[in-house]
């Protein structure tokens, strides 16, 4: 059985000291993930347009006396077009805002920045404490546990 230690952490060292030496850790979203989310918004917009055209086609077809459930089908197509339109807008905004999301882990706590540039939303979770999970884990690695209350400054 092979055991791996965390990079840059010496065996048996106090994790608080190692965290202090390492400086702040910044976590951000992948640019590829943000691009794929925006691309999903574009695909949703295209599907909304296609469903809108299909809705009009079904509605025109339902005006003939042969089709009895054509009006119901047109309503379902309109609902699908509206749903895809909403999906398009939501995914595009999410992909735009995800570029600015970041989490900073430092000695004072965890700083969450989850808003956009126009409307920043900041949260702070104070008090990083390190606690080894067990006696065996003490020798190989450490777990960092952050405890706090939401909205606390």
At a glance:
The strands form 2 sheets. This protein has a 4-stranded antiparallel β-sheet with strand order 1-2-3-4. A two-stranded antiparallel sheet has the order 5-6.
Task: Explain the layout of strands and helices.
Elements: H1 15-22, E1 25-28, H2 31-62, H3 70-98, E2 102-106, E3 109-113, E4 122-126, E5 128-130, H4 135-140, E6 144-146
Helix pairs in contact: 2-3
What does this protein structure show overall?
The structure is a single chain. This protein is α+β, with helices and mostly antiparallel strands and 153 residues long. The chain folds into two domains: 15-29 and 100-146, no CATH class; 31-98. Helices cover 49% and strands 16% of the residues. The chain is built from four helices and six strands, in the order αβααββββαβ. It has helices at residues 15-22, 31-62, 70-98, 135-140; strands spanning 25-28, 102-106, 109-113, 122-126, 128-130, 144-146. The protein has a four-stranded antiparallel sheet. α2 (31-62) packs antiparallel against α3. It is rod-shaped. The relative contact order is 0.16.
Residue runs with pLDDT of under 50 for 5 or more positions: 1-7, 135-142
Q: How much of the residues is beta strand, in percent? A: 15-25%
Secondary structure category: alpha+beta
Largest sheet: 4 strands, antiparallel
Shape: rod-shaped
Mean pLDDT: 76
Strand order of the largest sheet: 1-2-3-4
Strands, count: 6
Q: How many individual domains?
A: 2
Share in helix: 40-55%
Note the total helix count: 4
What brief labels describe this structure?
single chain, 153 residues, alpha+beta, four-stranded antiparallel sheet, two-stranded antiparallel sheet, 4 helices, 6 strands, rod-shaped, disordered N terminus
């Amino acid at each position: 059985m092979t055991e791996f230690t965390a990079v840059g952490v010496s065996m048996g060292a106090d994790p608080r000291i190692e965290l202090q030496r390492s400086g702040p850790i910044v976590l951000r979203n992948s640019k590829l993930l943000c691009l794929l989310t925006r691309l999903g918004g574009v695909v949703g917009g295209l599907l909304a347009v296609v469903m809108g055209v299909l809705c009009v086609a079904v509605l025109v077809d339902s005006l003939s006396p042969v089709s009895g459930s054509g009006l119901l089908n047109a309503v379902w197509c309109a609902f699908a077009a509206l749903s895809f339109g909403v999906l398009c807008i939501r995914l595009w905004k999410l992909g735009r805002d995800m570029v600015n999301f970041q989490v900073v882990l430092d000695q004072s706590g965890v700083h969450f920045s989850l808003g956009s540039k126009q409307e920043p939303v900041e949260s702070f979770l104070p008090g990083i404490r390190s606690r080894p999970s067990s006696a065996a884990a003490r020798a190989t690695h450490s777990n960092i546990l952050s405890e706090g209350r939401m909205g606390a400054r």
